[in-house]
Amino acid sequence: MGELASALDALAAEDLHAMVAPQLLDRSAELVRARNRIDAELARTVRVADLTQAPEHDGLKTMRSWLRGHARLSPSAAGQLVRNGRVLEHLPAVAAGCAAGEITAEQVSVLAPVVSPENVAAAAEQGVDLAEVDAVLAETAATRQHAHLGRVVHHYLERLDPDGSEPDPTEQRSLRMTKHSDGSLSGAFDLDAVGGEKVQSVLESFVQANRPAGDLRTRAQQLGDALVQWADVTLASGQAPIMRTVKPHVIVLIDVEDLADPATGPGAGEMGFGAVISAARARWLACDGTISRVVMGPDGEVLDHGRTKRIVPPGLRRAVEVQERHCVFAGCEAPTHWCDVHHVQEWVLHEGPTSLENSALLCERHHTKVHHGFRVERQPDGRWRTWRPDGTEILVLQRITGGTERARTG
């Protein structure tokens, strides 16, 4: 282990910026192989430690709990490592491929169902030669793309139990979300094939319908925006299940002084699930929301609460939708049901009127942009123009008769 640490120290000391492209690519390939070998040794060690009850030495029952507490692994990472150790024990050809650096830990985790107790028992009952299966899986993992390995495993399991009952899809679905200190979320989910197809279809419809000119978002960012847009549409439609007599909606608690202060006001608003946001973000949410006044006493007791007021009444929203038809930001044509009604002159800071003339239809992405320096303005002829924070105008190219192009505003 000391030699391994010394080798890693030597690698860390190398000047990567002095290397040319072929050297960097070769180095990356070698490091992947080395990582695969280390992952294999780690999984093998964890398996033996589990079988010999080594965690009892530190007062713990399983290696899964030891990895979470002592190695600070997440529950999912610890579980995967324990499962991989079992896979390598039962599939020696796969283990050899890992030891040679040809098979990754992620590929090994795909093989876990093959060596589950029930599937091993089913293979023995049917006279399946697990050694042959092991050889095929090892060859596939070492030579084919990652997705192909999953299809091979799925095919094997279907052949192993062709007359078995169709699994309950709900048992294959899970969603794990982790909230961070700033209120942001990260997570992972597992879906059955049909459920996954439904989710992909909905997300892809949002992605393809919202591709404004000059879009520089990555695929992952587009899907993330699509997921939030899906939530927006669901909340706006009023079709989500009612929670304790109240339709689900986004809630923000903020002092009226912070809401009216033009400063950004970090950490001024508290959301319904505990996230803390800035006053600027709260003003953005309030553009097309409702306001409820609550007067609090010095000890936190509610002294008075006023009626809830809709900032943009339904009639005005319908008029704005009919007039604008889509997001007015240059280059974007997101449909009306994806959009908020934005006060061009802010109703909180600038006492802008809630009127048709002062209302702009903006999708979530561009509503955020407008609250962070961008600007939209309606011209006397009813057309909208868009400016960047530096004062330059965003122009969109439009092809006209004769094959030439000219710039136009949004």
UniProtKB/TrEMBL annotation:
<dbReference type="Pfam" id="PF02720">
    <property type="entry name" value="DUF222"/>
</dbReference>
<feature type="domain" description="DUF222">
    <location>
        <begin position="29"/>
        <end position="322"/>
    </location>
</feature>
<dbReference type="InterPro" id="IPR003870">
    <property type="entry name" value="DUF222"/>
</dbReference>
<dbReference type="InterPro" id="IPR003615">
    <property type="entry name" value="HNH_nuc"/>
</dbReference>
<feature type="compositionally biased region" description="Basic and acidic residues">
    <location>
        <begin position="170"/>
        <end position="182"/>
    </location>
</feature>
<feature type="region of interest" description="Disordered">
    <location>
        <begin position="158"/>
        <end position="183"/>
    </location>
</feature>
<protein>
    <submittedName>
        <fullName>Uncharacterized protein DUF222</fullName>
    </submittedName>
</protein>
